[in-house]
Write a structure and sequence with these properties.
The chain is an alpha/beta fold. 32% of the residues lie in helices and 22% in strands. The protein is globular and about 65 Å long.
Length: 452
């Protein structure tokens, strides 16, 4: 699962009057995920000597490709789509191929509602899709510009004041539609539907083209054939920044003329500017001077709503190309990833890690059987992002009221300290796309400050 990196040093641009002559680097990027790699590559291309400092012993952040008994799988960020402009542009830039998840276009769809597992008829599938469109009908009014969350501010803040569970009950839906939409929302938020603001659901829908089919393709169908690590490596090799692994950060201080970064081992690094790509839940563990806004620390300690789990299961035989959801089940979503005659690999999502012990094969098999009849588990693989000290959560979904109270603070910057994180990227926040976009924009802002 490790990523091979090629590090290089370039001569920094000499025309800038804003750089500190005493600094080791022009730019230090904190974090080696896609946001950090995009920011570092573009900073290098702008002529700035750049260092990436990564806490883990690998690059990639909350993406992690690994081998699952001979099959490559992505334990973190995974799917991409042409509706995601930043990652698709990178895929085109480097000539990478995509492939498809079979379960995104299933032969069979199933749903477990209150303990009863049924195969959905075509009429029921059409009813479910109609329910989605009813639920998101105000999307164009609330978010006429999906990459500008508060453009229609009054409508957006109104949508931020209710959660998805409340909105499902307030919408004219059949009981069947409600049963289908609740696990779908739980999978999207990676938590309980009650923790997802209606505004966030509308953001997903509008970014995905405003229709159910386009949205589902956007978030669960296409992925990079050679894996997320291939793209990451090509971006690193393209820019050639210096890289320092296994170097968690303790403090970041803006000293006016330069920024000083202190690692947990006491090593001090200096740069003209710093770009922090730390996940929002990790920010409180690092000391910033000047201090970050109190609300940023408070929300980081509260943690965003993305706190579920993702797993892959290898099961006996060919169980078919399927997609199954559940309303009162440990797994809210299961889909086919790979079919062979002897085994099938399924990808599953759950909204609450407390509901399933991933290390108990009997429990996992029982959970799978709630969505896939008579399945026989062979093996599983997962990664616990919630207890990873450098993630402390999965993909970011804002909580109810955050857009109303905290949105400006999330995007604030301080002097020579810049911020770039997929947790706060406009549009596809929480996706690889949002991370790359935030890194690119941070590098642009740094270039403007440094006189490029």
């Amino acid at each position: 699962a490790g990523v091979t990196v090629a590090a290089a040093t370039v001569t920094s641009a000499s025309s800038s009057v804003s750089k500190s002559a005493s600094s080791e680097y022009d730019v230090i990027v904190i974090g080696g995920g896609f946001a950090g790699v995009a920011a570092a590559r573009d900073s290098m291309e702008n002529g700035y000597k750049t260092l990436i400092v990564e806490a883990r012993n690998r690059m990639g952040g909350r993406t992690l490709k690994t081998d699952f008994e001979g099959t490559p799988v992505e334990l973190g960020g995974f799917w991409i789509h042409h509706s995601q402009p930043f990652v698709w542009a990178e895929k085109e830039r480097y000539g990478l191929e995509i492939t498809e998840t079979p379960g995104a276009m299933p032969d069979v769809m199933m749903m477990n509602s209150e303990g009863q597992l049924n195969t959905l008829t075509l009429e029921q599938i059409e009813e479910a899709i109609e329910g989605w469109h009813k639920l998101v009908a105000p999307g164009y009014e609330v978010l006429p510009r999906a990459w500008d969350l508060l453009f229609n501010r009054d409508a957006a803040l109104k949508a931020d004041s209710v959660n998805v569970a409340q909105q499902i009950e307030a919408t004219d839906l059949t009981e069947f539609q409600k049963s289908y939409l609740k696990p779908l929302a739980a999978t999207q938020v990676h938590g309980y539907a009650e923790t997802m603001p209606y505004l966030e659901l509308l953001r997903w829908n509008q970014c995905g083209g405003g229709s159910f089919t386009n949205l589902m393709d956007s978030v669960g169908r296409y992925y990079l054939q050679d894996g997320s690590d291939k793209l990451l490596n090509m971006m690193i090799e393209d820019g050639g920044p210096d890289i320092r692994l296994s170097a968690p950060i303790k403090a970041i201080e803006d000293k006016g003329s330069h920024v000083e970064v202190t690692t947990v081992r006491g090593e001090k690094l200096t740069a003209s500017v710093v770009i922090s790509t730390l996940p929002m839940n990790v920010l409180p563990s690092v000391s910033f001077l000047p201090p970050l806004p109190a609300t940023v620390i408070d929300r980081g300690n509260e943690r965003h709503a993305g706190s579920g789990f993702k797993m892959y299961a290898k099961v006996k035989g060919d169980v078919g190309n399927l997609l199954s959801v559940g309303t009162s089940t440990a797994l809210t979503y299961v889909a086919t990833c790979k079919q062979t005659r002897d085994y099938t690999i399924l990808v599953g999502f759950g909204h609450d890690p407390q509901l399933l012990d991933m290390y108990d094969d009997d429990a996992v098999q029982a959970a799978l059987r709630e969505l896939v009849p008579d399945v026989q588990l062979l093996s599983t693989i997962a990664y616990d992002w919630n207890n990873d000290p450098y993630a402390k959560g999965t993909w970011c979904t804002y909580r109810q009221g955050w857009a109303s109270k905290d949105y400006d603070a999330f995007s604030s910057e301080s002097g020579r300290i810049f911020f770039a994180s997929g947790d706060h990227g406009e549009g596809w926040r929480g996706f690889i796309d949002g991370a790359i976009g935030s890194g690119i924009r941070a590098a642009q802002r740094v270039n403007k400050l440094l006189g490029g």
